[in-house]
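Handout, page 2. Input:
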Amino acid sequence: MSRLANAPSAYLRSAAHQPVDWHPWSPEAFARAATEGKPILLDIGAVWCHWCHVMDRESYEDATLADLLNDQWICVKVDRDERPDVDARYQRAVQAISGQGGWPLTGFLTPEGEVFFGGTYFPPDGAHDRPGFRTVLTELARLWREERPRLVEQAGILRTRLADAEGETVNAGAVTPEILAGAADGLARVFDFRYGGFGSQPKFPHPGALRFLLHRGRDGGQDWPRDLVDRTLTAMAKGGIYDQVGGGFHRYSVDARWIVPHFEKMLYDNAELLSAYCDALASGPDAPLYRDIIQGIARWTLDVLADAAGGYAASQDADINLDDDGDYFTWTLDEVRAACLGDLAEAMIRHYGVAAQGDMHHDPSRNVLHVVEAIQTNQRDAGRAALLEARARRQAPYVDRTVYVGWSALMASALLKAAAVLGREDLTAHALTTLERLFTEGLDPDGGLRHAVNGPGGLLEDQAYGTQAALDAFEHTGNAAWRDRAVHLADHVLRHYATSSGLLRDRAAQAGEGLLGEPAYPIHDAPAPSPNGVMADVCARLTAHTGDDRFVRAARRVLEAVGETLGDLGVHGASLLLAADRLLNPATYVVVVAGNDDAGRGLRQAARAGWAPRRVLTLRAPDDDPAGLPDPVRAMLTGAHPRAYVCVGTACRAPAGTPLELHEALSA
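Output:
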C-alpha cells in the first residue's frame, strides 16, 4: 500500500494511487537514499495548485516514467501547506539555481538533502520552452552515476552560499521615524495609480501595506495614504479577484486590472484582507462597498470553510479537473440569462459586463464577473442570489479541511474585527469557539501551538498568529484568561525561538533532515504576515497590557536586528513596519468601565468598533481593580459608569459616556 494513503495531508493522499514509490518527508526517506546511494527527487506542491495537478497527471501517473523514478531515485512528496518550513528552504535553493520558484517545486537532491539541480513544472517530453522531465531525469541520473563527486561538491557549495546569504539579507540598525516615512514614500513609488495596488501584473493583494498606510495617513494628517488605500480596496472589491457571487478573494490577479484571477482561495489571504477592509471601514466614513465586502468574506468563511467545532479549512481549489480554468466561478452570457431571467438578467449583464466574448483563454465564452456599471442594490442582491443558487448546482472545487492552527488564528482575529464593525455576535461566537479549540486540541505538551489541530509541533508562524489572536480575544471580551494565554505563548516563543541576533527562528528545533538544519528567520510577508513582524507587534501590545517591559524589549531586539534593512523591504515588510510604528509612536489607550446593562453594552460595542492607530483596548467591570491600567487613565477614573477613557500617550480626552462621544474622541 502507498505510504501516502493514510497521510494527514489531502495533497499527499491525492497521490496515493500513483505508481511512483513516494515517501513523505521523513528520516526514513533520507536513510533509504543513503543506504542505496540514490539521489532524491523532491516534489513540493499543494492541493490547490493547478500546475501541481498537471504534473501529477502528465508525469507521476505515467507508468513508464514512474519505473524510471522508482529505479534510479528516492521520491519524496511534500505538501507546502503542511510543511512550510521545508518549502521555504528548498524554494530559496531552487531559485538560486534556476532563477524562479513556485509550485510545483521540483528539486534534485543528494542523499543528505542538498540541492544539485531544480526547477518548477517540467512537461514530460518538453514543451512551453521547458526541458522534458523524462530527459532531465535520465541525464541527471547519468551524471549521478558518472560524476557524483562533482554534483555533491556543487550542492555543498550552494548550501554554504545559502547559509551565508541568510545572514546577509538583514542588517542591524536603529529603528527611526525616518524609516517609517521612507517606507511609505517607497510604497507610493510602486503604486499603480491607474488600477490600484502595487506593481503591475501579476498583481497580489498586500493588505498589510494598506493597513500601514492607514496609520501613516492618520498620524501625519495627510490625505494621500488613505487615497492609495481606498483606490486599491475599491478596485479589488469591484474586480474579478473578488468572488462577486460567493464572497471571498481569489489568490491573485494575472492582469493589472484585478479582473482575471488565479481562482484558488486561501484562508490566510482572506483573513488579512478581511482585517484590512474592517480597518478601512472603521477608520473612515461609512463605506457601503467595504461593508458589503466584509459581509461577503464572512459569509464565504462560515458557509464554506468553517468547522462547527471551531477552526477553518485551509483553502478552496481553483478547478474541478485539469480541463477547466475556474469554470465553477465564471459565466457565459447564456448561463447568466438562464439563472436570472428577464429584466434581472439584463441588469446583471450590465452590472458585470458579461458578453458573448469573455475573459478566459481556454473558453472565450466564459466571463469573470467584475463590476462595470452600477445598478440598484436590490437588483444586485437578487441577481447575486439567483447566480449563487445556480452555481450551487455545479460541482464545487475541493476544499482542504485541514485546520492549520496559525491560519485559523488569523481568521479568528479578523472575524472579531468584523463582528465589531458589523455588530454580529455570531461572528464573535465562532471566532471564540475556534480559539478555544486551537488552545486545547492545538496545544503541544510543551505549551506551544501545533501547526495543525491534533498534528505535529508548530512553527513560529503558529505561535505568532496564535498569540495575536489570544490578545485580540482579550481586547474583544475583557476576559483576562485570553491575556494570560497570550502571555504564556509569548514566553514560550522567547524561550524556544529567540536567537542571539534578536530575530526569531521559524522552527524551535535546530536540526532536521536535509536543509532543515539551516536556520531561517522569516521577515517577509510572503504572503502571510511575517511571524517576526507579528510577534514584535504583539510583544509591544503585551507590555501595554501588562506593564512587563521584557516583552517590548524583545520587540525592540527583533526590529533592531533588521533596522538597516527595514525601509527596503517594501510591500513585503509591512508587518515589521506596523511593529516599528507601534514601537516608535504612542499607543491609543481606550479603557471602558461598564456594567452589563444596555448602556454598558453599547459603550463596549462602540469601543470594539472604533479605530485608531496602535489602539490598546481594555474592557473592565465597574468593581474591577484599576491596577495595571495606564497611569493617565487611572488618574481620570471617577467611579462613574459607563465611561470610556481615551488617551494617546499621556494626553487624554474628557471621559465619554455615550457611543457618540467615544466615536468623537477616537476621531480626534
